[in-house]
Specification:
Largest sheet: 7 strands, mixed
Strand order of the largest sheet: 1-7-3-4-5-6-2
Number of domains: 2
Order of helices and strands: HHEEEEEEEEEEEEEEEEHHH
Distance between the termini: 56 Å
CATH class of the largest domain: Mainly Beta
Number of strands: 16
Length: 318
């Protein structure tokens, strides 16, 4: 049965078909096709998907508050080094809004302590700096939400496909049986847990396995924090790698078309490139309409929390 999405092998097949490249051609290697695909994901697909503002690629990371530490790094895998939102979470799990200020105004906001008022922050280089400064009695977490950068496409032999899941509640571990353990996997390498079904989201990032058994084809992690929706068929990959393009499945043909155009450009086929770009334009117009307005029957409610009236109501709550 044909899958409703492309893997790296089927993506390369589609690129060759669209560019009318012979199956046994030697001009482009697998690495060339994947390099084209990864670049087109970054400069073409990703910006277009984010432009519809429908919350694709949103990833949440909880960062514990460290006493006497006020500067926290923006996650390195955030697209553009920017956050979608940031909250402080108290010990009961309640979220408190954090408001961004200009660095030159930081002295104005050093008058209260964490947990007694809204928390403010400013951006300094690639860090979030909290003000008022965090003291020794601070607690809770910061909740960063950001648009996570899609993983790089690699050959399928670098990916482990989950065939069975076993949880050990007493030991607090989860063991995945896979189709084969790639040679680069070890207990010291960071691994990602990826959804294979359409959506193709990143479930967990930068995991360290507690044990890897090449003979039994098993990979074991501490179960704490592992996405509870992980299922058979999902993938385990080296951190930052994948074998399914991490964009809506309906855009996989668009990615293949963009890569085919890159091949024709490299070959100097001017007429073929012109035809490919014309088709690409048609595909983008029609395909991106499919991912816009993800819930048609429920218009988005606009809440003006940052207006004068909205702010006064929120202040009364605190």
């Amino acid at each position: 049965m044909a899958l409703p999405y492309y893997t790296t092998d089927t993506l390369i097949e589609q690129i060759k078909r669209k560019a009318m490249l012979p199956t046994n051609q030697s001009t482009f290697t697998e690495e060339d096709f994947l390099a084209f695909a990864n670049e087109e994901m970054k400069v073409g697909i990703l910006p277009s998907v984010l432009s519809v503002h429908e919350e694709f690629y949103v990833f949440t990371e909880t960062v514990p508050v460290v006493q006497n530490k006020s500067s926290y790094a923006i996650p390195s895998r955030a697209v553009g080094g920017r956050l979608r939102d940031i909250f402080w979470q108290d010990e009961n799990g309640n979220l408190v809004e954090m408001a961004r200020i200009a660095p030159e105004d930081k002295s104005i906001y050093q008058r209260s302590s964490i947990g007694t008022s809204f928390i403010f922050f400013y951006v300094e280089n690639n860090n979030i700096v909290v003000t008022p400064p965090i003291q020794s009695n601070a607690s809770g977490n910061f909740v960063f939400t950001y648009f996570i950068r899609p993983n790089e496409l690699v050959s399928e032999d670098r990916i482990a496909v989950i065939s069975n899941i076993a949880r050990d509640e007493i030991a607090g571990t989860i063991t995945f049986t896979v189709d084969g353990v790639p040679s680069l996997f070890s207990v010291t390498t960071r691994l990602d847990l990826l959804q294979s079904k359409p959506g193709h989201k990143t479930r967990n990032i930068d995991l360290l396995a507690t044990s890897i058994n090449q003979t039994n084809k098993t990979i074991t992690f501490l179960s704490a924090g592992i996405d509870s929706e992980v299922e058979v068929g999902d993938h385990i990959a080296l951190a930052g790698e994948c074998m399914i393009p991490q964009c809506p499945s309906d855009l996989h043909p668009v990615l293949a078309q963009r890569c085919a155009a890159r091949c024709l450009e490299a070959l100097g086929d001017t007429q073929g490139l012109s035809n490919a770009n014309s088709k690409l334009q048609e595909m983008e117009v029609k395909s991106f309409a499919l991912i816009d307005n993800r819930v048609e029957g429920a218009p988005k409610k606009v809440v003006n929390n940052r207006g004068l009236l909205g702010r006064s109501r929120l202040n009364r709550r605190w």
